[in-house]
Amino acid sequence: MKALSRIYNTLIFLFLYAPIAVLILFSFNDSKSRVVWNGFSLKWYEQLFGNELIMESLKVTLLVAVLSALIATVIGTMAAVGIHGMNRKLKKVFLTVNNIPVNNPEIVTGVSLMLLFVGAISFMNHTFGTHFKMGFGTLLIAHITFNIPYVILQVMPKLRQMDEHLYEAALDLGCHPVSAFFKVILPEISSGVFTGLLMAFTLSLDDFVISLCTAGSGAQTLSVTIYSMIRRRVTPEVNAVSTLLFGSVLILLILVNVMQIYSENKLKKEQRRAGVR
Amino acid sequence: MEKKPIINLKDISLSFDGEKVLEGLNLSICDGEFVTLLGPSGCGKTTTLRIIGGFLTPDSGDVFFGANRVNDLPPYKRPVNTIFQRYALFPHLNVYDNVAFGMRVQKKKKAEIAKTVERMLEMVNLKGFEKRTVSTLSGGQQQRVAIARALANDPKVLLLDEPLAALDLKLRKDMQNELKNMQKSLGITFIYVTHDQEEALSMSDTVVVMDGGEIQQIGSPLDIYNEPVNAFVADFIGESNILDGVMLSDYKVKFFGRVFDCLDAGFEKDEPVDVVIRPEDINIVPAGNGLTGTVTSVTFKGVHYETIVDFYGFKWLIQTTEYHPVGEVIGIVLDPDDIHIMHKSRYSGMFGDYSSYSEEFDEMNDPTIDLVDDEADAAGEAD
Amino acid sequence: MMKARGAAAPFAVWMAIFTVIPLGVVVYYAFTNADGAFTFENILSIREYAGSLLRSFWIGLLSTFICLLLAYPLAFSISRSKGRVQQTMVMLIMMPMWMNFLLRTYAWQSLLENNGFINQFLGWFGIPPIQMINTTGAVILGMVYNFLPFMILPLYSVMVKIDKSVIEAAQDLGSNTMQVFSRVILPLSVPGIISGITMVFIPIISTFAITQILGGSLINMIGDNIEMKFFGTAPDYNVGSALALLLMVMLLISMGIMNHFDKNGEEVGA
């Protein structure tokens, strides 16, 4: 039975990773083909860095990801704190609204935001004579919107797990509420906040549908660029991009995991020394 | 010795989710006292403590610190400090930073902080633990850090919310002594909350017995034990046999068809009363003289035998070092000072019969009662 | 406890403007025509998409079902693995999710093409090339591939909570492996199954990139229809909104079903 499950698991993992492996492999292919191997070469990576469109999209993608993750984390963490202290009924309302972007199909979210933007922009242009158009701003707003719920979902469990009396203890010892938040609550929920930030960043990097709907012609994220490249005939530059993206996410994840394991071990050692473990 | 009240609660009422938790509570706390709020879960003792600490605002009534009305004063402005039930030490700070926390908030000088932290840690016997992280400390050690942290702020009043509940029995007893000594040497007021009556009796100058959001009795441990005012207090403190009786006149009470001499007076002629007899006060004699009954169960408790005896359909608890086997017919003799008389109250008839020890046991077999919800209520809400 | 309701104010404002109102705008467009007058035409014109709807449904159901079948054993074996191994396996499952989903789908394109990897491989054995790309099969494959991790994780997280002693109790009472599975593990894993299905079904039927990359222009699902009504050559925001509204209604229905099951699950103490 055990051998059977091992074989099965390996097959599934092969299934999951085979396409990715092929993708990465062919990013080093010496010819344009994505299927016939002609030898090792780094030329697609070189071309990649010369491709203005891709570099520009990369810049936009990174900027939107960082900004939207930061802003969403601030709004989301504050919201989680506020919601945590609400009575049951109010909490339910807020959490239901929070779940809408999470559960809604992306196309619906994207399209609804687009309609809002189009309507708002034409209204403002007509009434105030401004020259707004869809672009980086609307893109950023959209990303913040779908990121906030994930931050809240990461921070709320940490708030629930936290000893309620910690906040009261800080007040009891003379802290003002806001100061107590920064000195006591924030350190406790910091891992949730950080995970939320990371999640938001990754979701934003990876987003395609909503970016397609809300960026208009003013800005383009990498996913959107890749999409148009895929629709037409493509060079392995796309492969190179994916390899780089995959590689950087991999490194990031490994780093985070290593840091976690390191701090866990440090704590375990201290506890063992103190004879508590 | 004239003791000055430093905290006054006047007519405090509070409701949670539509349920009344405190009703018309009046309480005076005197300076330098060890006061214990004692009662079962849900009686309102912790709620009262939290109102004093500033974490709850009463729906009506006033809280006075000295001459000042402090209802709206937030916790961080009150000269009291709290020891929480699960210590609430800041996990991301080490012992030193935890103890120094309050002083740092007040922006005291580094040197002064260092001196005080050292003094506090010495007082709680944790010298050398400054750099330790909280998670490497045992329960007892964490508790001491919590005490050091609170006292480092030099409060006039220390609030303790069942601080020993999570400790092992023997450690608890040691800590009870330590806390009592600490309070005596510091000379400040301790307001202590517990459901453990032994703890209350051994540590306090004054005990405030509470049930259902009301104060049942206030007095010294000796008074509460020897002269409970109603069936609830009599049953909650120690074990009591409580029966119906009639006060024929001062110092004379009638129950089980006989007249007994007792030491209480001031009741109306022929007033129906509750008669309290402590299990350890009953003397067993050979059957024949006085009241007779049959032994229905004997349990060896080490210190004594807990003997349940059936008198005229009513089960009594007798604590005795003699062994009387099940089925034996025995007699008892009661001295006047073994009998204590109380006015009837709404608690009459609820306690004192030893067919079972607890309410819950009786309720467990009743399918119409939902015990899970009750447990959840008691655990979830502040009591 | 900390009562700081005001801290949620920025959130409330933001969500009102950028989540609630936009949905209202969609509803508005769904029920009006190009001149702004109230009409039911858009809703009625959904009939024209019945074929696409049907296709979306059965592709969705099939893909979800295959995902479930494939995910279940894997989730179970991960939940029974030891600590470090378990952690690593979970990470390995999650990693493809971090990779751009367009690119992962695109990777299958090069594998499935007529002169793609798989056909080349088959060619070594003298097997003539099979038409794989631009078929419904390819679309289903792409769906399963992309959404498999989303089915594995909820299953895993529920299974991992199944107390080992419950299984031991069943064995103690005389159940063999098959019975332990069907009478204990399967029923207890139902919340995970429900959760996985909901996380996967609606996203599958509303995706459009996968159909376009692997299905060519022949295969159309609701997601494609909506995308074309907004970004295609002949945009019609009103009909598009009606279709989007339809998707939302389907989502609400499926969430309602899930809540119904979840309530029962919670009572059983899962």
Characterise the protein shown here:
The complex is a heterotrimer of chains A (277), B (383) and C (270). Chain A has 277 residues and is an all-alpha fold. Chain A has two domains: 55-234, Orthogonal Bundle (MetI-like fold); 247-277. Chain A is built from eleven helices and no strands. Chain A has helices at residues 2-26, 43-50, 52-84, 88-103, 106-128, 136-161, 165-172, 177-206, 209-214, 222-231, 237-273. The longest helix of chain A has 37 residues, at 237-273. The radius of gyration of chain A is 24 Å and the shape is globular. The two termini of chain A are 36 Å apart. The model of chain A has no long low-confidence stretch (mean pLDDT 86). Chain B is α+β, with helices and mostly antiparallel strands and 383 residues long. Chain B folds into two domains: 5-226, Rossmann fold (3-Layer(aba) Sandwich); 283-333, Nucleic acid-binding proteins (OB fold (Dihydrolipoamide Acetyltransferase, E2P), Beta Barrel). Helix content of chain B is 26%, strand content 33%. Chain B contains ten helices and 20 strands. Chain B has helices at 45-53, 95-105, 110-123, 139-151, 169-186, 197-203, 221-226, 231-236, 359-364, 371-380, and strands at 5-16, 19-30, 34-38, 60-65, 68-69, 80-83, 157-161, 189-194, 206-211, 214-219, 241-249, 252-255, 258-261, 271-277, 283-286, 291-300, 305-311, 314-320, 329-333, 339-343. In chain B, helix 3 (110-123) crosses helix 4. The longest helix of chain B has 18 residues, at 169-186. Chain B is elongated. Residues 377-383 of chain B have low confidence and may be disordered. Chain C has 270 residues and is mainly alpha-helical. Chain C has a domain at 47-220: MetI-like fold. Chain C contains twelve helices and no strands. The radius of gyration of chain C is 23 Å and the shape is globular. The two termini of chain C are 28 Å apart. Chains in contact: A-B, A-C. At the A-C interface, helix 1, helix 3, helix 4, helix 5 and helix 6 of A face helix 1, helix 3, helix 4, helix 5 and helix 7 of C.
